[in-house]
Design goal:
By secondary structure, the chain is α/β, with parallel strands linked by helices. It is built from 19 helices and 11 strands.
Length: about 650
Amino acid sequence: MEASRIFTNDNCVGCNLCISKCPCDEANVARMEDGRNKIHIDPDKCIVCGECIRQCVHNARDFTDDTERFFADLRSGKKIPMIAAPAVRTNFDDYGRLLGFLRSMGVPVIYDTSFGADITTWAYLRYMTKNNVKGLVSQPCPAIVNYMERYTPDILPKLAPIHSPAMCTAVYMKRVKNIQGPYAFLSPCIAKKDEFADPNTGGLVGYNITYRKLQEYLRRNGINYHSAPASGFDNEQHGLGAVYPMPGGLKVNVEQYVDDVWIHQVEGQPHASHFLNEYRTAGRSGEPFLVDILNCQHGCNIGTGALRGEDDGMQVGRALHNAKMQARQSVKKKKQRIPGPDFKQFDKELKLDDYVRRYTGKGVRPIAINNQDRENAFVALHKSTEDQRHVDCRSCGYASCEKMAEAVAKNINHVENCVEYFKSVLRDQGTQMEQVAAQRQQQALALRQSVDNILSAINEATHQTNTTKTDVEGIAARSDKMNSISTTLTENVAHLEQEIKKYGQMGDEIVNISSQTNILALNASVEAARAGQYGKGFDVVAEQIRHLSEQSERSAKGALENNEIIAPLLASLRDVSASVLEEAQEVSSNAANILNAVNELSRIQQEIAAAAEIIAVSDGEEPQDQLAMGLPAAEPAGLPPVTF
């Protein structure tokens, strides 16, 4: 499937205006993308009328043409002859300098389509006279040709088999002037690309360069064509072909040659497509001589690829009026009815068959659905009653709910694009929310009871915690006291060891002195014996001193032996004291840890109690208030998400 000339860009907000303004029911396809409605184009059913571009207020529809490729080929050295639509006069105030710039880029020849429009008028009249036909539908607009080939192929025989002015110009350049193509068309129309790509037009025109994309290209590349030397066209003088771009332009030209004929004039969408649908069944009696039909309401000057907008209608009309007056200014000097090439000259120079073309009926078939498909779509749209099926608010882009249901059944639209569907969903959700609220109320009552139980348990736990905290604090105090006593005991044991050590040293000295005294007593006894009778008294004293010395030595040795027994006991007492101190410190540390844990537990209990109090206070509030406190919300079952 070939991509459409027109496409949807990222600006689309899914407003559905393009659907409502499109003359082709199935050309737009709505899809949900990333939770948003976006409308795409089916290129097989789009006629490239450009109405969606004109109507879109978000600039969400854009189009492609051959401008980039044209300039790329020129830069590569390719020589590309050009045909310029008459609307160039109304869209570019300094169009002569624009033509001069294009020539400087490598365009060797530029023809004015106004000249080809004169050939088109000649070909229309000669064909209708030769074949004695009337009621033909004109075909300057490729969007009109697209519509008839796709949607009204049964009246293709009424479509004038004459090339458009642009193609008549191309045929003239090829057949008469032997100018080699392919040609480029400087164009106000997006759909012209379809005409040039049609096998029935011979591939003479290879580029469709719209005014809008040309201006974008010039601005994007910083090109100021106003500094280029002005240039004109290379074709012969034209007549009133310059007014072809205006509504009724063909009519004005034909009436210059044929008096008192009915030329029916139709402009713009959806009027043009409606007319063609009615023309299929209209009685052939009293039909017009010619139907002058244009896709754009204000003609090609404000075409789909033009620079002018509808607000420029006065300026366009004035410019075309000036062109018309210039074309007629020599009427008084010549005897012919209009200036420009004489039809008799065309008869001699041109071959009518060269300007006759064919059409290919494409017969786009609507997507087939049956009544059951339509009914299923209504059910999906939550429309069960007749009133619901005839709301016809048109917000979906369709004229009726039935058309929307058909689009859903055809899978070119979706239920989320229906406002009434969303209203139904919201109503259902409201009902379910009421049910959820009632359930929440019941749950809140049960929750309140549970919270009360929790608070009671927490209060009891808090009391136990406080008792434990008091006991632990007492243990910590006793541990500190034991620690102090153990420290004192250790210090006293150390002091006693020092004193016993000193006492042992004194015992050693006593034993030593007693030994010396004992020796002196023995010596005294010996000396007393030598003294005989005179030494007896001294001997008695010496004996008593010796006994005293021995007794002192025995006492001192006994004390030393006791010291040796006491010393290990003191060492053992010192070790026990150290162990008691270490255990006391460990108990003190453990008591501190327990106290910290009890304090943390107390803090957590307080937080739980506070949260429980909040829940108890809010147990009768609405669900949204519970959500504000961080409580989970119940989701209504079985309903789609509401997105806008």
